[in-house]
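Worked Example 4.2. Consider the chain below.
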Amino acid sequence: QVQLVESGGGLVQAGGSLRLSCVASGRTISSYAVAWFRQAPGKEREFVATINWSGGSTKYADFVKGRFTISRDNAKKSVSLQMNSLNPEDTAVYYCAAGTNYVSSSYEYEYWGQGTQVTVSS
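Applying the procedure from the previous section yields the following structure tokens:
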């Protein structure tokens, strides 16, 4: 079993930056892909970024390309999401998830954290 805990969310002004962290406990996540998803009020959960087990490959949603960077440190069982140039449309609860498949579909991820709130003010 894998437990995931997100941190780093908060309130930031438009144009600002935040760094989210996802730390795993229990089984190692070194063999799993890890992704970030987000869900804004009244909207469906959407894919943000994913990273494969080694950290050698990443995928991003079009709306975050060039602004967000996903990275991982398997020794520390952690995955980070550096978010720059934030805008109010980025306001959402951000979730990390781990799974065996390196994909953008939330249905493929087996383990989920509880989420961390990111609020971007205009």
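The chain has no helices and eleven strands. The chain has a mean pLDDT of 96. Compare this with Example 4.1 before moving on.
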